[in-house]
Structures are given as structure tokens and as C-alpha cells.
């Protein structure tokens, strides 16, 4: 169903080999002699190599590297991220406590309102449903009162 793949024929190329060209021998000139004030010349050290050659030179004090400040085991960025996470968790916990406190306070206030309504409603019901014999207040006795044509004549 699919056509057979055709592979290209590899092309052979000529290989060119390059040989390094040797450098002509160079003449080593000795370094010029520089006069040095007496007493300021550093100590000269000579070393005999195993094959018999002698190497002479100035003694150089070992260079001591400057002390490197120790890096903390954990990077400051990681510490800051961790502290930020702890602070975020503390804020979330505080908000959770705050919302719980507000919910409890709302429930308490609504219960107080319901209790006040029940007590006040009961007091009103007692006032309305009690017998009409007044024990206090103003008593008015009407003896010869007549009503004529919906008008009171006393």
C-alpha cells in the first residue's frame, strides 16, 4: 500500500592528508642581567633534578588563598520561600479561626434575638389575654350616659 523507500547512493570523496611543517630551530638568548641593590635580593634556591640537571630560581612563598566564606547548607532563596510558606499557613489558620469565631458570634446573636422575641411576645400575650380588671391606672365611672344619634350626652 505504501511505496518502497529508496535510499540515496553514498558519494565517495577524495581524502586529503595534511602533514605538519616542522619549525626551524630557534636560538635561546639568555635573559639580560639586571643589577640589584644588595640586601634586597631574595634568596636563590637550586634544585637538582633526578637526571642531573640543576634548576636555579627564586624561592616563592606559597600563595595562600583567601578564606572563602562558608556557604550555608540551604540557599537564602529556599529559606525565604519556606518562611513565606510558613507565614501563609499561619495567616490561613488565623483566617480560619476568624471565620469560625464570626460564625459562632453570629449564631449567638441570632439566639439572643430569638430569646428576646419569645420573652417580649410572651409579655404581650399576657397583657392582651389577661382579664380586663385593671388594678391600676385611671378608672372612669359613667352613670347616666346616653347615646343619641351616635352622639354621647353625659
Layout of strands and helices, then pairs:
Blueprint: E1 44-48, E2 54-58, H1 76-129, E3 146-148, E4 151-153
Antiparallel strand pairs: 1-2, 3-4
Structure notes:
This protein is α+β, with helices and mostly antiparallel strands. The chain contains 1 helix and 4 strands, in the order E-E-H-E-E. Strands 1-2 form a two-stranded antiparallel ribbon. The protein has a two-stranded antiparallel ribbon with strand order 3-4. The N and C termini lie far apart (125 Å).
Summarize the structure.
The chain has 154 residues and is an alpha+beta fold. The protein has one helix at 76-129; strands spanning 44-48, 54-58, 146-148, 151-153. The radius of gyration is 57 Å and the shape is elongated.
